[in-house]
């Protein structure tokens, strides 16, 4: 067997593992069930990808997020590793061929959404696969005590029974002890299972909460004081746009991002931000999953997060390079009131849920007993307009139908057009001779896609084909449709809209088996989570890192020394006047030579930890009194 560290070096280019990764990999290779609790940005995927590459066979990865699955598949392919995925929105034929390739091809990783595990097709094919490992990403989704419970995750234990002798690794960045215990029980972990928990503490991340009447003005001030890349989270799409426009008017390079944008727009803005062409991205929580940008210096929330789990993940996108970074919540009294009101709204009456379910069946013209695992393009605005439904209330009804396991709604994701030849190469050649009008298109497909178009669905660009043939895109699509109807090819046009999937056959809405007791239990759990957010926001004394860690059952962490409450406790009298005078002199002497970024100034002065805190405190004082300022390039300089 190849050593894990050799795989890490060859495939990822890293010379050593991060803390706990090697121990987790070793436990997996020893055949143990493993629960890995690693903070956001802790390198979870390496923990199952490395051992899987060291073993014979295919690794099945269960993940609830299509965008994340697609991203990981693409990342593996870039590293020369065969990977594929099965998820909502794919045609039955494409799923069929994909699973065949997992049996007879050289596929190493199969990513699959949890609702696919119970299908007859998946269960029949997996018995023919040589499975070496089962990996469960976002494992907190299996627990009703977690913040993103998904009933389809409960199918995994039954699915495991079809994989005797195959061990399982479950991974999450957000789990309390109760959730961690629930994960192990519901996944039927063996008694010899191991749990690896890395502290959720982020020593370089300063958590701050500020009461502000004018949030936008405070945000602008922070962006002037904290140089570098930033993510600003807002709840509504409209607010994202308005804040981004206002920042641009103030001379700050900013753009907005939300699920309502087209795929091209989302990709363009995300790439521009990743490549530092845009400094600030103002986004809904649709932004950030799977993005690992190390040099984010500020994550600010203009609206309160629903749970501390969500906040920890979102704020944790700052400072992954382990340099100083800030997670800031800006709030007003009405925000807390709205958070509590929204929590009540998220649990609509059973009659309202049934009404929305019936409207969905009418909207898609679905007969009772049909549409099991069938996906539909879904635009909620058009749906609400058609049936005169309130958009927010309808959204919460849909989320409850999801939690009860009847439907699944994915955010819009981009699936490019794909083609597969249904005839073999000799039959295609004979068809070309007999159909001269279609011959140029067939030759173009073969030229652009190569031989793999006979065995797997292959991405195509209608515009690229149109350019090659010097015809219109509409003409290319018309002829591709023709070939599809003649059963020469299977042609799937691109998708860029949310997908709504019926996880069960359609019920009569009046007999929809909603479980009122479970809904009430989940409401009680959710209200507890909202109360935890409120407690965190209103806390003005306790260390914020300590509060977050205590929520995740880490109770032995000392004060972080860098959050707003810790710094507030260090009033000027905490340091001797002579110490503060000497620090001012050191800052003045260093900056007289040249401007410095804050982190480089810290390094150049070679200070101990207590002195670093004094340095940062002194810099803040000097900025407030305007004896220092930040340059346009984000460096500290003398006035």
Explain this structure to me?
This protein is α/β, with parallel strands linked by helices. It has 5 domains: 194 residues, P-loop containing nucleotide triphosphate hydrolases (Rossmann fold); 145 residues, 3-Layer(aba) Sandwich (Rossmann fold), CATH 3.40.50; 103 residues, Orthogonal Bundle (Arc Repressor Mutant, subunit A); 75 residues; 69 residues, Orthogonal Bundle (Arc Repressor Mutant, subunit A), CATH 1.10.10. The protein contains 26 helices and 21 strands. A 7-stranded parallel beta sheet has the order 3-4-2-5-6-1-7, with helices on both faces. A 6-stranded parallel beta sheet has the order 8-13-12-9-11-10, sandwiched between helices. The protein has a 3-stranded antiparallel beta sheet with strand order 14-19-15. A hairpin with a 5-residue loop joins strand 20 and strand 21. Helix 5 runs parallel beside helix 6. The radius of gyration is 27 Å and the shape is globular. The relative contact order is 0.09.
């Amino acid at each position: 067997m190849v050593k894990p560290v050799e795989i890490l070096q060859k495939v990822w280019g890293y010379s050593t593992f991060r803390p706990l990764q090697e121990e987790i990999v070793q436990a997996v290779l020893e055949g143990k069930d493993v629960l890995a609790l690693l903070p956001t940005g802790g390198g979870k995927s390496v923990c199952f990808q490395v051992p899987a590459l060291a073993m014979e066979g295919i690794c099945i990865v269960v993940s609830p997020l299509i965008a994340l699955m697609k991203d990981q598949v693409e990342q593996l392919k870039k590293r020369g590793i065969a990977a594929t995925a099965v998820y909502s929105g794919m045609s039955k034929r494409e799923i069929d061929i994909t699973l065949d390739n997992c049996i007879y091809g050289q596929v190493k990783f199969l990513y699959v959404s949890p609702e696919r595990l119970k299908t007859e097709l998946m269960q029949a094919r997996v018995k023919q696969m040589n499975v070496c490992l089962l990996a469960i990403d976002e494992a907190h989704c299996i627990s009703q005590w977690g913040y993103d419970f998904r009933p389809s995750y409960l199918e995994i234990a039954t699915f495991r029974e079809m994989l005797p002798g195959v061990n399982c690794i479950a991974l999450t960045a957000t789990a309390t002890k109760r959730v961690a215990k629930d994960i192990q029980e519901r996944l039927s972990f063996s008694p010899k299972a191991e749990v690896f928990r890395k502290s959720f503490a982020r020593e370089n991340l300063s958590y701050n909460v500020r009461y502000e009447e004018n949030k936008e003005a405070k945000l602008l001030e922070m962006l002037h004081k904290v140089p570098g890349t930033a993510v600003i989270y807002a709840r509504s799409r409209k607010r994202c746009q308005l804040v981004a426009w206002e920042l641009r008017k103030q001379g700050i390079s900013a753009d907005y991002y939300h699920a309502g944008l087209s795929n091209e727009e989302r990709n363009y803005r995300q790439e521009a931000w990743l490549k530092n062409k845009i400094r600030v991205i103002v986004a809904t929580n649709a932004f950030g999953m799977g993005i690992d940008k190390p040099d984010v210096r500020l994550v600010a929330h203009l609206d309160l997060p629903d749970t501390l789990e969500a906040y920890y993940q979102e704020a944790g996108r700052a400072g992954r390079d382990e340099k100083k970074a800030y997670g800031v919540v800006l709030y007003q009294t009405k925000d807390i009131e709205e958070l509590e009101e929204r929590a009540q709204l998220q649990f609509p009456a059973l009659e309202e849920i049934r009404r929305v379910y019936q409207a969905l069946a009418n909207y898609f013209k679905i007969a009772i007993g049909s549409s099991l695992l069938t996906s539909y393009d879904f635009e909620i605005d058009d749906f609400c307009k058609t049936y005169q439904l309130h958009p927010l209330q309808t959204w919460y009804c849909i989320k409850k139908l999801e939690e009860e396991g009847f439907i699944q709604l994915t955010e819009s994701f981009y699936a490019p057009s794909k083609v597969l030849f249904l005839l073999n190469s000799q039959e295609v050649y004979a068809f070309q001779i007999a159909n001269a009008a279609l011959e140029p298109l067939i030759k173009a497909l073969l030229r652009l896609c190569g031989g793999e178009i006979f065995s797997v669905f292959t991405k195509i660009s209608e515009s690229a084909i149109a350019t090659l043939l010097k015809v219109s895109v509409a003409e290319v699509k018309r002829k591709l449709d023709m070939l599809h109807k003649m059963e020469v090819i299977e042609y799937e046009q691109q998708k860029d809209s949310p997908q709504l999937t019926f996880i069960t056959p359609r019920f009569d809405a009046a007999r929809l088996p909603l479980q009122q007791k479970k809904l009430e239990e989940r409401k009680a759990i959710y209200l507890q989570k909202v109360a935890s957010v409120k407690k965190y926001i209103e806390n003005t004394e306790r260390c914020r890192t300590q509060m977050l860690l205590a929520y995740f059952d880490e109770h032995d962490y000392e004060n972080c020394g860098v959050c707003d409450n810790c710094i507030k406790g260090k009033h000027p009298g905490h340091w001797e006047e002579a110490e503060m005078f000497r620090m001012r002199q050191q800052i003045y002497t260093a900056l007289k030579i040249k401007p410095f970024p804050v982190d480089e100034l810290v390094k150049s002065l070679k200070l101990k930890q207590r002195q670093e805190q004094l340095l940062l405190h002194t810099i803040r004082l000097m900025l407030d009194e305007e004896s220092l300022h930040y340059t346009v390039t984000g460096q500290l300089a003398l006035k």
